[in-house]
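If you are new to this repository, start here. Below is one unmodified record pulled from the training split, so you can see the exact layout before writing a loader.
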Amino acid sequence: MHAAVLVIHHEDSSPAEALEPYRNAEWDFFEVGGRYTGLLDGYDPRQDPDNFETCELCNGTGKRLELPSPSETYKVEGGQWVHEMDYSRTTPEYQESLGGCNGCHGQGTHLKLSSYWKPYDGDSILLADLTAEQYEGNFYAVCIGNWGWYSSERRIPWGPDEKRVQLLELPPLDWLKSIGYKGDRAVVVDCHS
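And here is the target side for that same chain:
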């Protein structure tokens, strides 16, 4: 599961240092911004030309030079398994019906994985500048280094259906600001667990 986590750290440290105490307990992989890049200010990394790359399947032409191999299918006929080859997706007409190359939809370029997007400075702001509009309803959890990891829910898989997920409150913004030091940063992080 990927989740938007607000990481608060001192100006002389990094998000990685703040997250480290919770490795393998709350996350196993993270990246600053990631699929949540632009969450604080509305920047859309999916519209930034720098986050696109030439399609390797068609070398940027928008049309695949080689067609996919036929696929194998199995079905039961008269109580026996019958092996067939499906050639329906191996024709130029099928490729055209998809709009060209299936890797870029005929555009010649496609969006890079979020791990390869260019870094975006707007994903890190001073904690003092974080507004309620930016904070409330946007994050699954808040990580405050050694202060704690605060999730918006707790999962209890063995409980009855209606109690398997208990919703919790994230710390209030004014409290976060009151415990912070001048220069503390609030950073959008994509955490995987």
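Two things worth knowing about this chain: The mean pLDDT is 89. The first strand starts at residue 2 and ends at 9.
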